[in-house]
Design brief:
The structure holds two protein chains of two kinds. By secondary structure, chain A is mainly α. In chain A, a hairpin with a 6-residue loop joins strand 1 and strand 2. In chain A, 78% of the residues lie in helices and 2% in strands. The relative contact order of chain A is 0.10. In chain A, helix 2 packs across helix 4 and helix 4 crosses helix 6. By secondary structure, chain B is an alpha+beta fold. In chain B, strands 1, 2, 3, 4, 5, 6, 7, 8, 9, 10, 11, 12 and 13 form a 13-stranded mixed β-sheet that branches. Chain B has a five-stranded antiparallel β-sheet with strand order 14-19-17-15-16. In chain B, helix 2 packs across helix 4 and helix 7 crosses helix 8. The longest helix of chain B is centred in the C-terminal third of the chain and has 23 residues. Chain B starts with a helix and ends in a 7-residue tail after the last strand. The chains are: A mainly alpha, B alpha+beta.
């Protein structure tokens, strides 16, 4: 049997075992729904199954899959937006709190995160979504907390720029 | 004003928090089951850009070697996921029809014990003793394992499972446990649950009751509670269980439980007026409740998969839901059978106080309470005649895809998606039940615009499964003539409903040898609104 295909089939199973929970949790963080988060997990792996492995996946699988999860979640968010745009009210509310929630800003934020380099997007998600400290992220990525702090700072600058740009346009 | 990016990130990335670990595990396993057939096929897929892959192979092989070392822990986990996703139990002793001792049992397996009874060793460490001539369906639940007992008795020694649960469901009760010894009997007249050790929670319709050792509950007016010593007598370990019972309770007691539980209520519920129909009439709206055992939705409000709304676990969410549909959902009837409802619609967001354990049926009960508390809703039921459809045998008789089955295990009709991504309708039921389901009379999504009555004359239990979209060719029937736009939304809706009925009838004839024909007068029970007020303030 073709060694590439054989290796590929086994590798996908290994990648799933290693990263599926991460992808699910990230999708949950964006969408807040089990059904949708499952759809994202399935979509990300179906893409891997049906196409060749992107070089970025081999280079840094975790960062690549983190960004892939945000991108796939965005597709679902956009579909939600298309539906809600038909309604007269522009805002939804955080369930149970009555607190105003700007869906437009949320979507632009996720779009901006998807435009970051995968490594930067991963750090932003680990810190703000999964509540990891800079020290924990540094330990995980094998760099110092100071380096993570600097990368976070730069990522925030870039995000602010992207969000302001989106707002003006 | 300068954007406060820190605050935006904290607010929008942390808004849903983290899902529960058990939720993550069960979702990951659930998706893997759907992906597994695809991974099996990957070896035969002709990938585009194969030469590029070959170019990467030395790198890839090296990377794979590193990954095998680096992911050795994850590899074990990966294999674990694969195996546990399939093998949920094994036959430990005794005999099951069609299985050998030691054989693995998987999600969706129907288990029938022979004359000697059988013992199952569950993957969660629990042991299940099946009485002779019992039948159950083994299923994976959102947070554990579910045994759907159709007939006979079970004596269960449930392992302590942390936040996971073992569920036993009969036609009228659901029992959930985390570590205990208890009995469940399912009979024609009702069900009996008795506890030997620990605590179990029994849910019967809207009522929920915790049972302690020595206590039992019997449903159905003709079913009496039996002395526990008699209940246990069929077990292979009857003396040991009896001793355990006496140790936990002193003298063995028997009592029929009848105290109703307090009404279930949401912890928080926000209700705000919201228009229901978009200007182009294509908006997909609805109401959905998401419990640990699945999702339940209002009928006839969404259009296709793309349009489905969703809700986080333990919550109900509706966007622009009509009050009529909400009342129908709460009472398990199609919206067409709710009379006297005003044309109000709302955005509703409601949260239960325990999202980790609340079931979809409990959320439905909370919706009933919400309607009574906030809308001051009062209703009564009465019979009326309605036009609809009759399910009949098509010319040529039943087809081979409609298989008559000899045992009585029933699985309500459900809509699912097959491995090819196509929507299917499957079930194992009487045709009367199939007819009710098609007409929405079982409280699910109504496929058809009117009630459906079974006039096939076929009385047995049948198994059926077929794709509910046309495979190819034969475009939509009905609809407006070419080049002519529909005149109003009501007409478009009528066209769509007619088309759905015709398509479903064609598909059923093709696969099952059954047809739908119009029926002028079918008696149905409707909900009549006696009183309703605008909702009280949030």
């Amino acid at each position: 049997m073709d060694p590439i295909k054989l290796a590929r089939a086994g590798e996908i199973e290994k990648i799933y075992g290693a990263y599926a929970p991460l992808i699910y949790r990230t999708a949950w963080g964006v969408l807040g729904s089990r059904e949708d988060a499952e759809d994202v997990l399935q979509a990300v792996f179906l893409r891997l199954l049906r196409r060749e492995f992107p070089p970025d996946l081999q280079k840094n699988p975790k960062a690549y899959l983190h960004t892939a999860a945000v991108n796939a979640s965005l597709d679902i968010l956009k579909a939600r937006r298309r539906r809600s745009a038909l309604l007269s009210e522009a805002q939804a509310f955080l369930p149970g709190t009555g607190e105003a929630f700007d869906e437009d800003l949320a979507q632009r934020l996720y779009e901006a995160i998807a435009q970051l380099r995968p490594e930067s997007a991963e750090i932003v998600l680990l810190h703000y979504m999964h509540k990891k400290t800079t020290a924990e992220i540094g330990q995980r990525l094998g760099v110092s907390r100071t380096v993570i702090g600097i990368r976070l700072f730069r990522a925030r600058l870039r995000l602010r720029k992207l969000l302001s740009k989106g707002k003006n346009s | 004003m300068k954007l406060k990016i820190q605050s935006v990130l904290n607010r929008y990335l942390g808004r849903y928090g983290e899902p529960a670990p058990d939720d993550v595990n069960s979702a990951v396993e659930h998706v893997w089951q759907k992906l597994k057939p695809e991974t099996d096929q990957v070896e035969t897929v002709k990938f585009e850009g194969e030469s590029r892959n070959t170019r990467y192979f030395p790198i890839f092989a090296a990377a794979a070697t590193v990954l095998i070392v680096a992911f050795s822990i994850f590899l074990v986990r990966g294999l674990f996921i694969t195996n546990t996703a399939l093998a949920m139990a094994e036959v430990a002793d005794g005999s099951l029809v069609g299985f050998q001792t030691g054989q693995s049992l998987r999600d969706g397996e129907v288990l029938r014990s022979a004359e000697t009874g059988a013992v199952l060793a569950m993957s969660d460490g629990s042991h299940v003793e099946m009485r002779a001539q019992s039948a159950l369906l083994l299923e994976r639940a959102g947070d554990g394992i579910k045994l759907r007992l159709d007939r006979g008795g079970l004596l269960i020694t449930a392992a302590k499972q942390g936040s996971r649960h073992l569920y036993v469901q009969t036609k009228d009760v659901t029992v959930s446990v985390v570590g205990t010894v208890f009995l469940v009997n399912a009979e024609e007249a009702g069900s009996r649950v008795a506890v030997i050790q620990g605590v179990v929670e029994v849910q019967e319709g809207a009522m929920s009751k915790k049972l302690l050792p020595g206590q039992q509950v019997a449903t159905g007016s003709s079913l009496n509670a039996l002395p526990l010593s008699e209940e246990i007598s069929w077990s292979r370990n009857a003396p040991a269980h009896l001793a355990m019972l006496q140790q936990n309770t002193g003298p063995v007691t028997a009592a029929k439980e009848s105290t109703p539980a307090p009404r279930l209520r949401f912890e928080v519920a926000s209700i705000r007026p919201r228009p229901s129909i978009s200007p182009d009439g294509n908006e997909s709206l609805g109401f959905v409740c998401h419990g640990v055992d699945g999702v339940q939705r209002t009928a006839s409000e969404f259009i296709g998969r793309e349009g489905r709304i969703s809700s986080p676990l333990g919550r109900c969410f509706g966007r622009g839901v009509f009050i009529r549909n909400l009342i129908a959902f709460a009472n398990r009837v199609p919206p067409r059978d709710v009379a006297g409802a005003p044309d109000w619609s709302y955005q509703i967001e409601a949260l239960s106080d325990d999202p980790a354990t609340v079931t979809a049926e409990q959320l439905r009960e909370m919706v009933r309470t919400l309607l009574a508390d906030r809308f001051k809703l009062k209703t009564h039921r009465e019979m009326k005649d309605s036009s609809g459809f009759a399910l009949v045998v098509a010319k040529g008789g039943p087809k081979s895809e409609l298989k008559e089955v000899s045992d009585g295990l029933e699985l309500s009709p459900t809509q699912e998606v097959n491995s090819a991504g196509q929507p299917i309708l499957k079930g194992r039921s009487t045709l009367d039940k199939l007819a009710q389901w098609l007409g929405g009379s079982l409280g699910g999504v109504a496929f058809l615009s009117g009630p459906v009555v079974d006039k096939t004359g076929l009385k047995g239990m049948y198994e059926y499964e077929f794709v509910t979209v046309r495979q190819s060719g034969g475009g939509p029937r009905g609809g407006p003539p070419a080049g002519q736009l529909p005149r109003s939304q009501a007409e478009r809706m009528a066209d769509a409903q007619k088309q759905i009925a015709e398509t479903m009838s064609d598909l059923m004839e093709e696969h099952l040898g059954l047809r739908l024909q119009t029926e002028k007068s079918i008696p149905v029970e409707s909900i009549v609104i006696d009183q309703i007020e605008m909702p009280t303030e949030n």
